[in-house]
Design goal:
Porin, eight-stranded antiparallel β-barrel, about 65% strand, about 180 residues
């Protein structure tokens, strides 16, 4: 990983940990924060000619500092998808600030997130001469997403999300999360 990418990820992680520690103190309004963890499944949309879109599987966790603002980290990987006479897969790691807007008296909420994501795409294939070729892309960039969720009860929610992971990939997922 390049030095700039390492520095950006270290700064983002340090900032999130600092904010998490401050939020644990409480804001004096009775809300002291709420951690959560979840799983998601969906599909990558890769900007690679000749590639099928791989199925995505992921885990994520976060912390709501108050009912609206929070932070979230995630890992999403994929299975192998067809790519010419070979296969391709993707994975992404992300750290985001989040905002949720709860629609009154419905259990529905809208979610937005913005942060950094590292996306890796790898594939191999045979060309017309039966020579084996590989592709490998590694991109760290500003990423974001929008989603819609439903709180089944105070501790369990389901969400649908669309994430933009920079110039190489997008991600569409549905998932479930448990609040602690």
């Amino acid at each position: 990983m390049k030095t700039l990418q390492k520095t950006l990820l270290a700064l983002a992680t340090g900032s999130l940990l600092t904010v998490s520690a401050q939020a644990a103190i409480g804001y004096g309004n009775g809300y002291t924060g709420q951690p959560y963890a979840g799983v998601k499944v969906g599909q990558f949309d890769l900007d690679e000619n000749g590639a099928d879109d791989p199925t995505a599987y992921g885990v994520y966790g976060g912390y709501n500092f108050d009912p609206n603002f929070g932070m979230e980290v995630e890992y999403v990987g994929s299975d192998d998808a067809d790519y010419y006479n070979g296969d391709i897969d993707a994975k992404t790691y992300g750290a985001y600030g989040t905002y949720r807007y709860a629609f009154p008296n419905t259990g529905l909420y809208a979610k937005g997130k913005l942060g950094l994501a590292k996306t890796e795409v790898e594939g191999n294939y045979l060309d017309e001469n039966s020579d084996r070729n590989t592709i490998s892309r590694d991109d760290t960039s500003i990423a974001g997403g929008v989603g819609l969720g439903y709180a089944v009860n105070p501790d369990f929610s389901v969400e649908a999300e669309y994430d933009m992971l920079g110039s190489d990939a997008d991600l569409m997922t549905v998932g479930a999360q448990l609040k602690f």
